[in-house]
Design goal:
By secondary structure, the chain is mostly helical. It has one domain. Helix content is 76%, strand content 0%. The chain contains 6 helices and no strands. Helix 3 packs across helix 4 and helix 4 packs antiparallel against helix 5. It is globular. The termini are far apart.
């Protein structure tokens, strides 16, 4: 379990670091979008803050995963971003859905492997 956790954590960190660094340094040419995804993408770009914010979160969580520090916090912080990626790919860009599902499954696996750290979040005080 420990080796699997290390592999999944490192792979997820590498994915988030690669995507965020390529966004900030404009390393990948923008792919041509069509239909509803293009309208959604135009809206994201028009907001001017949402993509840089998401990519900054991805970068910081990627560093956390690669170095193995604050992994529990990084799992919580990146979870809404991953849910958004999963839903965008499900509804607007199904060709990229397998990658989104793999990242979602990786995050769930990391949460499961560190479950003892999350138990306090689900305690009922009464």
């Amino acid at each position: 379990m420990k080796i699997a956790t290390l592999i999944v954590r490192t792979l997820m960190g590498a994915i988030f670091l690669c995507t965020s660094i390529s966004y900030f340094l404009n390393l990948n040419p923008e792919t041509a979008s069509t239909g509803d995804f293009k309208a959604f993408q135009v809206g994201l770009i028009a907001s001017t803050y949402l993509m840089p914010l998401a990519k900054t979160v991805e970068f910081l969580c990627g560093l956390s995963f690669v170095f193995g520090k604050f992994t529990t916090l990084a799992n919580i912080v990146i979870f809404p971003v991953i849910i958004n990626i999963l839903l965008i790919n499900y509804f607007l860009r199904p060709t990229d859905l397998p990658i989104a599902v793999a990242v979602f499954a990786g995050n769930l696996f990391l949460i499961y492997s560190h479950w003892q750290n999350y138990k306090g979040l689900f305690k009922m005080n009464g």
